[in-house]
Amino acid sequence: MELHRLASLLLVLLVMPDHSQEYDYDCEIRTGNFEGDMILTERQQETIISGRNPVVTEVDKWANNQVPYVIEADTLTHDNAKLIREAMTKIEVVSTIRFVPKKQERDYLFISGESSGCWSTLGRNRGLNRMNISPSECMFEGAIIHQLLHVLGLGHVTNQQDRDYYLDVNWENVRPEHVRCFQIHEGRVLPNHGIPFDEESIMHFGPKHFSHNGLDTIIPKNKNHTLGQRNEMSLKDIRKLNIMYPCGYC
């Protein structure tokens, strides 16, 4: 009986879909936002250009580690909302972050499901913060987690200061108008919080991000890694998040 149950479990695992293979990273690119999927405030844009200060400071983090949110019913179904809350739970169980339905809070996250694109604002902005998950393109748990981590203040690891030690950019495959998306940010602009470069991070670009010919734009020097997975947070992602948001409600 136990062997039969084990065989059944193995069969289920074998036929489970690999969402990282089905996910179309182009939905993080086509809207033309900063590095594809981030909407920056004017101050954040100036900070990126000057390179003098962190783009997400202490005052840009969510107060008491709580993110009040609203899920738009007009563009997202009950099943969509359920998956979004499940993605939130994946972050909550490994951190002190709590996503709470909005009541009277002034600063909050509004989650929509417009027909095209997967994007979000970066960190906590005053008043309305936005995140969009297109139901037809990026309604995957890992893709939602990627955007929620942007909302919490995490940038793309692909642009981290030490990235050239760990990956190569195939510049000949990058669309000319998107070359700037591979700009390396100084450590003070995009802090790594003392965490070594993370090839397994959910916060990387996909391997063909910004490609004009369908070929890889980023290649890890360690061939055992595939950059840009959209399945789950890595251990270093979790560690970085907990450094950014130490216990704030206990």
TrEMBL record:
Residues spanning the membrane: none
Ranges of residues in domain Peptidase M12A: 53-248
Signal peptide span: 1-22
CDD domains listed in its UniProt record: ZnMc_astacin_like
Pfam families: Astacin
SUPFAM superfamilies: Metalloproteases ('zincins'), catalytic domain
Record organism: Aedes albopictus (Asian tiger mosquito)
Keywords: Hydrolase, Metal-binding, Metalloprotease, Protease, Signal, Zinc
Keyword Protease: yes
Top-level taxon in the UniProt lineage: Eukaryota
Top-rank EC class of the record's enzyme: hydrolase
Cofactor binding, per record: Binds 1 zinc ion per subunit.
Binding site for Zn(2+): H146, H150, H156
Protein name as annotated: Metalloendopeptidase
Gene3D superfamilies per UniProt: Collagenase (Catalytic Domain) (3.40.390.10)
EC number: 3.4.24.-
Matches recorded under SMART domains: ZnMc
Cofactor: Zn(2+)
Record bears the keyword Amino-acid biosynthesis: no
